[in-house]
Write a structure and sequence with these properties.
transmembrane; globular; mainly alpha; transmembrane helix; 22 helices; MFS_trans_sf; cell membrane; disordered N terminus; membrane
Length: 434
Amino acid sequence: MNNQKTETSKTPFVYPNMKLAFVLLVTCFTAWGVAANMTDPLVKVFSQIFTMSNLESALVQFAYYGAYFCLALPAAFINVRFSYKTGVLTGLGLATLGALAFYPASVSMTYGAFLAALFILAAGLSILETSANPFVMAMGPKLTATRRLNLAQAFNPVGTNIGVLLAATLILPNLNPATAEQRAAMAPQALHAIQQLELDAVMMPYVGMAFFLIIIWIMIALVKLPKSEKVAEKVDPADKQHYGFIATLGRLIKLPNYRWGVVAQFFNVAGQTCTWTFTIQYVQEAMGGSATHASDYLQYSLMIFLVSRFVMTWLIGIFRPTLLLGIMALLGTALCVYAAINPSISGVWAIVMISVSLSLMFPTIYGVALNGLGKDAKFGSAGLVMAILGGAIMPVVQGGVIDSYGAAVSYIVPGICFLVVASYGFSSMKRVKD
């Protein structure tokens, strides 16, 4: 059981006006949920528009999560040099530029231009996430930090559902049903006209999201935080050597709970991205039908993910987070194995129910790994966000497995990823008092 002192629950924030900052940060968690899950169906979309293999189209996720890896460390330097608020604003600004870049990409009609726009968008979200997660944890008592982060992360699935809904209503229905063979037989002018309409459909929701990000940026910029506010303080000049990058990295590497937390986060994000990215392909292989119909099951997955996030936040107040993490990860592996063996309607629902397991993983690994790091959490957070690289690498691996063996067998890939997460959850029970 999770034994937390009663008084900590009465003081969830360090300062009273942190409540407004927390609410605004929740909108950021929602925003990157929209972006991430509007991107998942693009693997299927681009494979159809540009007539590519699953392996080639999976470069969408490589560009998206690769940007997370590249920008997480610069984000940490921003947070150390300035504040978490500065990091959040920088991330929102860069993400806005990336979303707006979808317009010139649709004009150029090249796959590379869309990948570049996605990279810029994800680069901004990387800085945003590297700043927002530890920001939320630093807003109140340490004993409730993991639960507070789970609460904030619970609003991320709101964004994921909106993202999938936007893709299902604005992008997928506008795809021309012509097959790769039919497209190859078309006259260049006819194919160009079809592709232009399809890419315009991809562009519109991203440009719309850019204006939403601008509104969030303005609201956060106007919020005044206390000058003595701990979560925004700069490193004292006398502490620069102690809290410098090399010194901090040396301390972090020596901490097994943090070190293996980065590994677990790599495989958690890998498993999550693999599960959702290829849900549409799995459904079509198991049941047939259109991509639009298959996307309904991805929407079901994310609705379950949303509800489960709030349920898990409640359960963490009762049971140890590390124990729940291990159990949920094992459940995820079992569901993946079942789906791989049974490519049918029951296998489809097994894929959908993996979202129950996923709902707990990211914020819990994050909170457990950063537990007790103090100022080192600014660079520690960067390492955990860099671990999102798993979402860039493993979908490419799974895409290759699909091309060779089919979508059903490919779900062994996320199943293996969840085993690594389970190992971290159970082993952390001995190291962390949660």
